[in-house]
# Entry
Amino acid sequence: MTNPPGNAPNAGPRTGGMSDYLKEAFLFRWNLLLFGGGVAAAALTPLAPVLLPLVAAAEVSYLAGLVSIPRFRAAIDAKVHSKTSAGGPAEPAAPPVSLVTMLGSLPRDSRVRFERLHARCVEMRGIAAGVRGSAGDPGSAEEIRTPGLDRLLWLFLRLLLSRAALDRFLQTMNEPEISTRLTELRKNLAAAQGSGGDERVVRSLQDSIAMGELRLDNFQRARKNAEFVSLELDRIEGKIQALAETAVNR
# Structure
């Protein structure tokens, strides 16, 4: 039976693809602000060769973490479907990501750390509002919010996500096992070369050693990046606390 003229077959709702997810995640306004600011700040420092790869790694971790969240993908699917639907008015799509969603993807200790810091900022805003004699106004504490403090809180959250991703990567690797395997491979290679062994065996061992060295180098780089991110978290946490406390004495 053919379809009546003007009626298309029911093909089901149109969903987004990986390109749609990545595009929406990257073009999220807070991401553009922090990513652009991070690149600019890193480029202006003498440590640009070290900081720029770290900024890129943080961006990749953010994108990968965000597109893996089912709620985010569902929101983008709804947005894509609303653009292609020929029916009635489409429902507004949900925000690309929420603070609750991002916090939910953090380990418990990191989530508690952020919530404690955020509560400290809210407490200082309330005290600052009282110092100004506006304690009777429920919205007075929010009125003294500073864009700089909000950006630092957002950056702190992004760094917590990056640190969590690096920790997960490090947990998937066993440095002693890789080092032990490399030692064995080098011994086998020396024996094969010393006895005039098959050239194919020598090349295979050389390739295995190269891959083992690359894995070990990746592990060491990730560990150094994790240490650096931890130091940055401590520095930014102290800066946020100082900025929040300064609002009381303005």
User: Anything to note?
Assistant: DSSP finds ten helices and no strands in the chain. Confidence is low (pLDDT under 50) at residues 1-12, 86-95, 135-144. The radius of gyration is 26 Å. The longest helix spans residues 199-246.
